[in-house]
Automatic annotation (TrEMBL):
The keyword Zinc does not apply. Keywords: Activator, DNA-binding, Plasmid, Transcription, Transcription regulation. This is LysR family transcriptional regulator. GO terms for molecular function: DNA binding; DNA-binding transcription factor activity. Belongs to the LysR transcriptional regulatory family. It comes from Azospirillum brasilense. One of its GO terms (biological process) is regulation of DNA-templated transcription initiation.
Length: 307
């Protein structure tokens, strides 16, 4: 069994087609088929099955796919470490933040990493949580702070902070005020919300549904900037974390009110690959991130320690 065979098998499973995988790998389809057959002979079980909808892993193939991804990731990490030790490539550290966290932490994080890790090339990626999680699993990122990290053998995840969701409205609206509001009290408000499938929208919808309420979604928007613009124009309210609107609140452009009965929370996870132990640079970065998150919790009461 060779790493090339593992990579080929993974691609076939991801594309659901031997012909598409062969095209992507720039090899003949029969040659790719020979690689797959060799794996099946080596392990003594069928790994793939052809159906009218494409080529899919068998139950044994699903188990093999998970192990193959782990093995390929370990090999890639080993190659990178060897090249760094040999001085063939610069040492790097790639970190991912969500857009809301980037505005709060990016500058301080890069400044402290730069001071603590001389000679290490620092890379910062700003993406939504699901994209960051995928980048950690694939090896593009060494560390990420993301929400709703799933259980996975590819990922080591640790809950760090809970972040409250709040009602966001514009000054002078009927929901303008300083005290908390209940979920039932804002059930009739027209809302600008992220598109279906977004974590915040799922949390709001599930909480309302559990209480016999239906969210009044007037605008479904992919862009956070567009959501905030709808609220600033007085066209709707929003339910968002404070981190997403901190600058607007400070500038007086928006009003924030805590939600109670029930409080709505999302959990922030620190994520790294599970297949390798942190090297010295990553371990130092973990300590710096922990210190920053502790500072953030003290600065913003909407963040609390995750249990």
């Amino acid at each position: 069994m060779r790493s090339r065979q593992l990579e080929s098998f993974i691609l076939v499973c991801e594309l659901g087609s031997i012909s598409k995988a062969a095209l992507a790998l720039n090899i003949a389809q029969p040659a790719l088929g020979v690689q797959i057959k060799a794996l099946e002979r080596e392990f003594g079980v069928p790994l793939l099955v052809r159906t009218v909808t494409g080529t899919h892993p068998t139950p044994a193939g699903l188990l093999f796919l998970e192990e193959a991804r782990l093995m390929v990731r370990r090999l890639e990490d080993l190659k990178r470490s060897l090249r760094e030790v040999a001085g063939q490539v610069p040492r790097t550290l790639a970190v991912g933040l969500t857009p809301s966290l980037s505005g709060l932490l990016a500058g301080r994080l890069m400044e402290r990493l730069h001071g603590a890790l001389p000679g290490v090339e620092l890379k910062l990626f700003e993406e939504l949580s699901h994209a960051l999680i995928g980048h950690v699993a694939s090896g593009k990122l060494d560390l990420a702070l993301a929400y709703t990290a799933p259980h996975s053998r590819m990922l080591h995840r640790e809950a760090r902070l809970n972040e409250a969701l709040c009602l966001i409205t514009h000054p002078g609206s009927r929901f303008d005020g300083t005290g908390p509001v209940t979920l039932a009290g804002i059930a009739g408000a027209e809302l600008a919300m992220p598109n279906e499938g977004d974590l915040v929208r799922r949390l709001v919808t599930d909480a309302m549904t559990a209480r016999g309420l239906v969210p009044n979604v007037a605008f479904s928007l992919e862009s956070m900037q567009a959501i905030k613009d709808m609220v600033r124009r007085g066209l709707a309210c929003a339910i968002l974390p404070h981190s997403a609107v901190a600058e607007d609140i400070q500038a007086g452009a928006l009003v924030i009110r805590p939600i109670v009965e029930p409080p709505l929370m999302r959990t922030l996870f620190l994520i790294r690959p599970a297949v390798t132990e942190p090297n010295a640079a990553t371990a130092q970065a973990l300590r710096i991130i922990d210190d920053l998150l502790d500072e953030l919790r003290r600065e913003d009461r909407n963040f609390t320690v995750a249990s």
